[in-house]
Amino acid sequence: MVPDSPLTEAEKLLIDAYTSILNDPFEDKYEDRWEDEPFDKAVDDFKVRAQEIGFTDPFELLSRYKVPSYEAIRTQLKKGPAPCFRPGWESPLLGVRFDIGSILAKCEHVSGPEFDSKYRVVIMDFWASWCDPCVQAGPDMSDLADEFAGRIAVVGINNESIFGATKDPDIELLQNFLNENKDGFRYTNFIDNAEGHAKESAPQDNFRPTLEQALEAVEAASAREE
Predict the structure, then answer these.
(1) What are the boundaries of each domain within the chain?
(2) Closest listed residue to residue 185, CA positions, set 217, 155, 226
(3) Would the pTM of this model clear 0.70, i.e. be above it?
(4) Each residue of 173-225: pLDDT tens digit?
(5) Architecture of 100-225 per CATH?
(6) Gap between the Cα atoms of 40 and 45, Å rounded
């Protein structure tokens, strides 16, 4: 969670220290790969570095990022990322046919054009406003929607509790976010009702060729049917 006010130079140094000492070295050490001793040493190293920077209590800043304690950091790192962010993960819904219109009928339309079921290639972008990679991908999704207009549909499904405890959808919160970021989120967006699905999953660096291959196959099949 990004703080409301700009960071000072000392605060930037503390965030860098947190990332390089307490986070990055342990990102792939979750579950049965976890060891407490290296993390305990990293905590001691971080405390020394925080003092050097000028922070007696680094959590005065880190709590603004929803990092309340060393034990909370330990617990999250031991748990590891959500399965969909782990190497080699594939959606169990790959290749499954489903009715997108039926799914969206259960969601709340909040921005962008109404979904048109005529499109045979549909990108469903599941995202949350607190998820930095999701927000960074928004403009790319919008650019794809513009570039392939008339050939594909891009539909965003917002779920603020996608990796945590279930919360009631907050339409006003989402509308405010989309209004503030309307240039980056120009495509159709709905609020999820926890029944989201996906046709295909592709890493971001392979996404365009995956999309182009799908379009080529679908349009070739359509041409044969005519």
Answers:
(1) 9-80, 100-225
(2) 155
(3) no
(4) 777 888 888 888 877 776 655 443 433 455 566 667 777 877 787 777 777 76
(5) 3-Layer(aba) Sandwich (3.40)
(6) 9
